[in-house]
């Protein structure tokens, strides 16, 4: 893998989850541009720097030891990458403080370096939370590859921080500089809510939850076909989002035990709050994690999954394939993985490589519901 050359250090960085011969690198030209700008502006010793949405720790690791760095984002895999990359480069684990996006970093911060996230709602929530957290004379600098930089990002920075100036492009990357001005505190529009008819529930969704404004069509296709009569089964909702699959299943299976897992901290936060609203104090486990990577072998009877087909801006079935492998490892012999997927993704053939039996439970013109038995 190429070395990340910064004005502060040369870093050997890896992505998460790791792939053999991964063709993608853990940094890009926008990371390089941001760190060069920090040097150009001057970074006095002891400055407090907040890094937002650092995909694999390139920015925070680059600044570690040169400033008091806090990193915050909504990806467990990004947090894991930061932890591994600090260790990989001989940097102290406590050189960077990580705050999940389900919590608010505490300032005051002298500098904010912000990678523009894919979900503009997450950007809006993060900008709103910066109110009262910026030191006098603070700078807020956002960076992105131009192809991933919507005009709305600058509009949001201007709305919540202050006047915005764009840099020239370098290596297809651009920076946005926001000058903080005094603004009144704003009540966040997040979490948002939507209602379902079956089950008749209202679901809350924090800013970075997938399909925040309404039930996604894949889950809608899955809900009528969830397995019944589970008894005391141990069930995992893998990639749980706001928890709708697990909650719908739990309402129909009062004796089953549920584990809700997602790599998004805000998804797990949403799922936990929705579970409490629907099921009160009924026991369940919630965790932000690398899928079922930490789940003991032969510890689950059933896995429900609406797998993702992208990681940040990278589209592909790597994450889904990995989730299928994790599910197989965690399931008991005879246990089942139930999934919904787009027809064109060909999950039926992929599951047959891992499971002894794969059946189509239901289908419509766009989606299939599949049951794979270990």
Automatic annotation (TrEMBL):
Keyword Amino-acid biosynthesis: no
Location in the cell: Cytoplasm
Catalyzed reactions per annotation: guanosine(1835) in 23S rRNA + S-adenosyl-L-methionine = N(2)-methylguanosine(1835) in 23S rRNA + S-adenosyl-L-homocysteine + H(+)
Transmembrane feature ranges: none
Domain Methyltransferase small: 201-371
PANTHER family for the chain: RIBOSOMAL RNA LARGE SUBUNIT METHYLTRANSFERASE G (PTHR47816:SF5), RIBOSOMAL RNA SMALL SUBUNIT METHYLTRANSFERASE C (PTHR47816)
Known function: Specifically methylates the guanine in position 1835 (m2G1835) of 23S rRNA.
Protein's UniProt name: Ribosomal RNA large subunit methyltransferase G
Species this protein is from: Pseudomonas knackmussii (strain DSM 6978 / CCUG 54928 / LMG 23759 / B13)
Recorded name of the encoding gene: rlmG
